[in-house]
Design goal:
The protein is mostly helical and 177 residues long. The protein contains ten helices and no strands.
């Protein structure tokens, strides 16, 4: 059984994989996520989400019913690591038209272009905004206008790469599943 104490502190990639393998043995990634993703100790929440990034797509599929909760976590957390890791998990889940939340879409747009945001968060937000905009041509048009208006000199190579792929229409390589 994985305890809160096991998720405290800093640990290596190998230790994260050890915890992932323990979760894998239980087969209940959703229970693990529910138990730790909202922990008041950001290190516990961060480490739990980091462990979830190790999961295979079929294992992460257990989190599909929690998509809305993960979106809310990304929006509301004050910890950038928890935000980035929750966005990483969201990015690996399926997204349907019914899943579109305008507050999450607006959050993604705002964090995509925020030059003070970490590049990993900017890139993930831009990818997610692009995916959500696929359901509504007017949102896609808006997103393209916003991305075109970005001054590339202010952004990291990772953000510029996502931006350029979206503008060039070469988006298949942006999304893993």
């Amino acid at each position: 059984m994985i305890t809160r104490e096991m998720l405290k502190g800093s640990y290596s990639e190998g230790e994260a994989l050890d915890i992932y393998n323990k979760v894998r043995q239980t087969g209940d990634f959703a229970a693990f996520c529910r138990c730790f993703m909202h922990d008041e100790d950001y290190q516990v929440a961060r480490n739990a989400l980091w462990v979830l990034t190790k999961a295979e797509s079929r294992e992460l599929a257990q989190l599909q019913p929690m998509l809305d909760t993960l979106m809310q976590l990304a929006i509301s957390t004050g910890n950038s690591s928890v935000r980035r890791l929750s966005l990483n998990v969201i990015e690996r889940l399926e997204m349907h038209e019914d899943d579109l939340r305008t507050d999450f879409y607006d959050f993604c747009i705002a964090h995509s272009v925020d030059v003070n945001e970490y590049p990993g968060i900017q890139s993930l937000c831009m990818k997610l905004a692009f995916r959500m905009s696929a359901f509504y041509p007017e949102l896609r048009d808006e997103l393209i206008r916003i991305i075109k208006g970005m001054e590339p000199d202010y952004y990291s190579p990772a953000v510029k790469s996502v931006r350029n792929r979206i503008l060039s229409g070469k988006t298949k390589s942006l999304f893993r599943r």
